[in-house]
Backbone:
């Protein structure tokens, strides 16, 4: 039996980056990108010291309870609602994530979705490809202006601030709401004004959701919030499914209660609510906000660095750059 720690990687990503695990560990990389069900995750974690996992991998208390050797989980993603952090901490398993490296790419994508949604880009393209463009008409595909409008940002962390900074070029007024108000110098740097939650819904022409998912933010945007929005408003969600009540959103879009939505994340992804799929005033993308080649590589590289250090190897042994639950070490 090998004395080297064992590591499991749940998806075959960027082999040259994952190869940086090889000097330290016996590495098993899953050969396919198939979804890993609860049973498979339990089995996979059972006899390893560490794992590099992705957003769809739900690491629950049952899997953690059976993973007696497990000491570290490196999540490839900044959001980590797929991990049961309380159970990991109690079991002495250090969890890490990948903040910062994806901030700017994700902010770029929020803008891609916002522009596509407000200006009906994908709807217009679909219509053209269907061969429906037989006559140019003056009132064809009228959209909503971005420039000089009011941008609302719910959740003003790193990504929210990067989105706000980009709004300057469009001459927008930026409002935000966050659990805690930002220091004045940061507000100035983002040219963003703090408002109460209800005000944010009421005054935004375009509202972007960038808050983390937790039981407290489940359905943070439901029928009541959608009812507070301007009739011509657009909603963009690049945060997490479950923050928006997808059925309530489908109702609001179908009724013309708000104008349009751009969604990158869904309550039951990869399944998309059938009523959202049927609507034309919604732009749908498959959870790709951080998916530029450079950023996805950087995310895996950072997760590798975290895993190596969390398992006590490499130049930063014992000091992973992005611990989520440093107190896990106390439980060992
Ligand atoms: C990725 C994300 O799609 O970082 C997150 O929280 O949702 C995205 O960057 C995800 O990390 C892929 O595993």
Residues:
């Amino acid at each position: 039996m090998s004395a080297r720690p064992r590591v499991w990687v749940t998806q075959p990503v960027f082999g040259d980056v994952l190869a940086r695990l090889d000097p330290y560990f016996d590495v098993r990389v899953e050969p396919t990108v198939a979804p890993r069900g609860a049973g498979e995750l339990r089995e996979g974690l059972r006899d390893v010291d560490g794992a590099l996992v992705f957003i769809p991998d739900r690491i629950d208390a049952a899997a953690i309870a059976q993973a007696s050797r497990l000491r570290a989980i490196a999540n490839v993603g900044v959001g980590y609602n797929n991990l049961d952090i309380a159970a990991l901490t109690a079991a002495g398993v250090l969890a890490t994530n990948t903040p910062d490296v994806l901030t700017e790419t994700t902010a770029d994508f929020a803008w891609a979705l916002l522009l596509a949604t407000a200006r009906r880009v994908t709807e217009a393209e679909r219509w053209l490809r269907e061969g429906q463009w037989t006559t140019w008409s003056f009132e064809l595909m009228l959209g909503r202006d971005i420039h000089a409008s009011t941008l609302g940002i719910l959740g003003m962390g790193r990504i929210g601030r990067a989105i706000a900074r980009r709004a300057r070029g469009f001459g927008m007024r930026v409002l935000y709401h966050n659990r805690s108000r930002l220091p004045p110098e940061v507000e100035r740097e983002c040219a963003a004004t703090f408002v109460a939650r209800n005000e944010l819904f009421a005054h935004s022409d375009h509202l972007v959701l960038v808050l983390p998912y937790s039981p407290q933010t489940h359905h943070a945007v439901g029928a009541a919030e959608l009812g507070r929005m301007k009739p011509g408003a657009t909603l963009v969600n690049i945060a997490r499914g479950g923050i928006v009540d997808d059925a309530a959103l489908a109702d609001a879009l179908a009724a013309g209660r708000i104008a349009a939505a751009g969604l990158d994340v869904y309550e039951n992804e990869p399944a998309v609510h059938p009523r959202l799929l049927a609507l034309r005033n919604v732009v749908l993308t498959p959870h790709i906000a951080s998916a530029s080649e450079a950023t996805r590589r950087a995310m895996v590289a950072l997760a590798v660095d975290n895993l190596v250090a969390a398992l006590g190897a490499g130049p930063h042994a014992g000091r992973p750059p992005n611990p989520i639950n440093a107190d896990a070490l106390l439980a060992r």
